[in-house]
């Protein structure tokens, strides 16, 4: 039966207005659910709740009568009169929120200009392998990292010699990327890809959880046979201080187990076992458990 909403027939030839197809019915039900959740969040005075759409039913019949005799709680006919009347208001509210967040991001992103212009800097950071120190700002470092905050607090630690902090685990490019992220809260994809392992360790060491989470999500998305062992090794180094890193390690172990035949006979795996015997034991045990369950 043709749908009165999405039918391509001329208006005068369309079926009765109370006949809609399953797709339009589910779309209407989802829109009503979104509006109701939005109104509920407004009533609670919560501006941070995000509406979620209800899932569509695959076995729903192809047409639905709006004047059904037994309306359910989730059907459009059970909602108050004109349930979609507030949909434009909800969409406008989302647009306003989006614009406000965009303006806020633009406003806060100006901080990175201080780093690029090196204006009013009062501390230097350098790598362990030499190279020119990079100027920075004490206040920003202290705000972004609890470790830097402690290091720069004269009541907690001795002041850095020559107003310089050394980060021995990073090279110059990695240090620049770390500082760029601390100032801007963002990093170019190519820099994240190139320095993700070093930045993960630095984020863990200097307690920058937002950067740590960003690196972990990137490693999960890019996980494959070429980097699974490195990801597993990195996740093991930081999993003690981050619950999300524990999830990353579990994901990496499962991937290695699933692709054991491809990885186990490679030279990279031999080097991995030699340098990480405890991880090799964990992978072997997980592989045996998986094989037992598959029988």
In CATH terms, what is the architecture of the largest domain? 2-Layer Sandwich
User: How is the main sheet built?
Assistant: 3 strands, mixed
Structural class: mainly alpha
Amount of helix: 55-70%
Calculate the terminal CA-CA distance, rounded to whole Å. 49 Å
General form: flat
Query: The CATH topology of the largest domain is what?
Result: Potassium Channel Kv1.1, Chain A
What is the overall number of helices? 13
Biggest sheet strand order reads 4-3-5
As for the number of domains, it is: 3
Strand content: 5-15%
Order of helices and strands: EHEHHEEHHEHHHHHHHH
**The CATH top-level class label of the largest domain:** Alpha Beta
Radius of gyration: 28 Å
Mean pLDDT: 81
Q: Could you tell me the number of beta strands?
A: 5
CATH superfamily label of the largest domain: Potassium Channel Kv1.1, Chain A
Low-confidence runs: 48-79
SSE topology sketch:
Blueprint: E1 19-21, H1 22-43, E2 63-65, H2 87-109, H3 111-117, E3 123-127, E4 134-136, H4 138-144, H5 146-152, E5 164-167, H6 172-184, H7 189-205, H8 209-221, H9 228-238, H10 243-258, H11 260-263, H12 267-275, H13 277-294
Parallel strand pairs: 3-5
Antiparallel strand pairs: 1-2, 3-4
Write up this protein.
Pfam families: BTB (PF00651). It comes from Linum trigynum. The radius of gyration is 28 Å and the shape is flat. Strand 3 and strand 4 form a beta hairpin. The longest helix is centred in the first third of the chain and has 23 residues. It folds into three domains: 62 residues, no CATH class; 107 residues, Potassium Channel Kv1.1, Chain A; 73 residues, Serine Threonine Protein Phosphatase 5, Tetratricopeptide repeat, CATH 1.25.40. It contains 13 helices and five strands. About 11% of the residues have low confidence. By secondary structure, the protein is mainly alpha-helical. Helices cover 57% and strands 6% of the residues. The protein has a three-stranded mixed sheet with strand order 4-3-5. A two-stranded antiparallel ribbon has the order 1-2.
């Amino acid at each position: 039966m043709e749908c009165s909403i999405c039918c391509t027939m001329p208006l005068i030839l369309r079926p009765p207005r109370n006949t809609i197809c399953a797709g339009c019915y589910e779309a209407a039900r989802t829109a009503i659910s979104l509006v109701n959740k939005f109104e509920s969040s407004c009533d609670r005075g919560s501006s941070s709740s995000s509406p979620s759409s209800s899932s569509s039913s695959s076995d729903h019949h192809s047409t639905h009568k709006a004047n059904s005799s037994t309306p359910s709680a989730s059907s459009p006919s059970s909602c108050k009169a004109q349930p979609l009347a507030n949909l434009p208001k909800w969409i406008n509210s989302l647009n306003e929120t989006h614009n406000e967040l965009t303006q806020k991001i633009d406003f806060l992103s100006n901080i990175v200009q201080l780093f690029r212009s090196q204006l009013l800097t009062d501390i230097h950071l350098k790598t362990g392998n030499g190279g020119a120190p990079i100027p920075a700002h004490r206040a920003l470092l202290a705000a972004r990292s609890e470790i830097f905050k402690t290091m720069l607090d004269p009541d907690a630690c001795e002041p850095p010699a020559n107003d310089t902090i050394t980060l021995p685990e990073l090279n110059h490019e990695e240090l620049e990327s770390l500082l760029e992220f601390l100032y801007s809260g963002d990093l170019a994809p190519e820099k994240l890809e190139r320095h993700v392992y070093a930045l993960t360790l630095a984020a863990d060491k200097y307690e920058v959880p937002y950067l740590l989470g960003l690196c972990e999500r990137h490693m999960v998305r890019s996980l494959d046979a070429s980097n699974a062992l490195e990801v597993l090794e990195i996740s093991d180094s930081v999993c003690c201080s981050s619950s999300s890193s524990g999830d990353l390690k579990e994901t990496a172990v499962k991937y290695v187990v699933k692709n054991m035949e491809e990885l186990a006979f490679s030279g990279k795996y031999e080097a991995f076992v030699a340098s990480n015997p405890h991880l090799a034991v964990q992978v072997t045990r997980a592989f045996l458990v998986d094989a037992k369950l598959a029988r």
